[in-house]
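User: I want to check something. If I give you two sequences, will you return the structure for each one separately, not as a complex?

Assistant: Yes, each is folded on its own. Here is the first sequence with its structure:
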Amino acid sequence: MFNRLREDIACILERDPAARSTWEVLTCYPGLHALVLHRRAHGCWQRGWRWLARFISHLGRFFTGIEIHPGASIGRRVFIDHGMGVVIGETAEIGDGCTIYQGVTLGGTSLAKGAKRHPTLGRDVIVGANSQVLGGFTVGDGARIGSSAVVVKPVPPGSTAVGNPARIIHAEVDAAREAAAAKMGFSAYGVTQGDDPVSQAMKGLIDNASGHEHQIALLWQAIEKLSARSRELPAEECVPQDAHTTETFDAERLSRLVK
């Protein structure tokens, strides 16, 4: 028991720069308290003392804000950081060295009793804040779940799942695409300077369309001049009346519409 406790404290001191001492971690970290109580509840659950296990789990939820079903299996050196709002279901399995942030749900999508309804996390998995991992599949060793992601399918080892519904990033092509999008001022899964990604994309399209409008106007002006010189006719007779020789694109108006 004390060896596990020392392991838990050591992993918190290693992963959280805000942790200053063993005493602070032991007395002020609800993630640690939730795991200690869960081990008692899980032991009761395995012995068939189901009500007592659920009651200990309920006390843990009351004192820490972290709800762990006593049937869940949790490995060694697991760190639940902050932890408020974390929910871990009955058939969930968490491997050694995992890190789980606040607001995470390891939930089930099936109502079949006795079935594997909740996810399995491999070793050293990181689950970002407010993300939802839903279903009886496996998240591979060393995988990362981005904040606020909604994961409903298996995640390969060493890869990253981001978005809602989550998509898997594990190839160099995907990483290069993300970097290119960031260079263009569009962060696919981040919020920058108070602007949401959809608005950023729309503004990029507006800027692009504005540039095209300017180029078309210049082309018509050049055609107008060449036609007037070659045929010695008034300029207005050389260009179709519906041709636009001046810029009429109102980028600011469209920008206001997408705000």
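And separately, the second sequence with its own structure:
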Amino acid sequence: MSNLEYEQKYLSKGLRYIAGADEVGRGPLAGPVVVCALIMPLEGLIEGVTDSKKLTEKKRNALFDQIKEKAIACEIYQLEPEEIDKINILEAVKVCFTNAVKNLKVKPDAVLIDGNNIKLPIDAEYVVKGDLKSYTIGCASIVAKVYRDRLMEEYAKVYPDYGFEKHKGYGTKTHIDKIKEIGPCKIHRRTFIKNFWAE
């Protein structure tokens, strides 16, 4: 059974719309950072929701469709590499969380956010390993990951030399070797690759 412990605290106070938000793409050398914020119905839960990294790609894709279909509100916000380089990744993550939550079509009564090392200008509860502990954050985690993975697969067609479809922009040895060999493309984060490549 999915974990509703955090949601239950707010439901017991008579609150109805509990948003969950999670981020993906903080660490890669290429591609955007993405946050999904959503509000799910908290009855008739979708089976199998957990931290997206613990699921197979096939299972994530199946859950993505179910979550998107059932969500009361769902918002995805991303910042591109150029912006990440300009303001740094931590600030970029803050911008994405803040806007994803603020842009929800239904105003949440409470917000649960994965992590504990960011402070946002919105009222929220931070849950360490929230994608494992909270059903709502778990749903957001899956949507954010599938969305970003699909984006990187599209980039792989535009920039086929880097193998984005395999590593999704993360710093694998193959990826780093390729940057050293041919240099970066438009979606590489310059501040992330400066230790091994300089223009």
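Because they were folded independently, the notes below concern the second chain alone. DSSP finds nine helices and five strands in the chain. The two ends are 51 Å apart (CA to CA).
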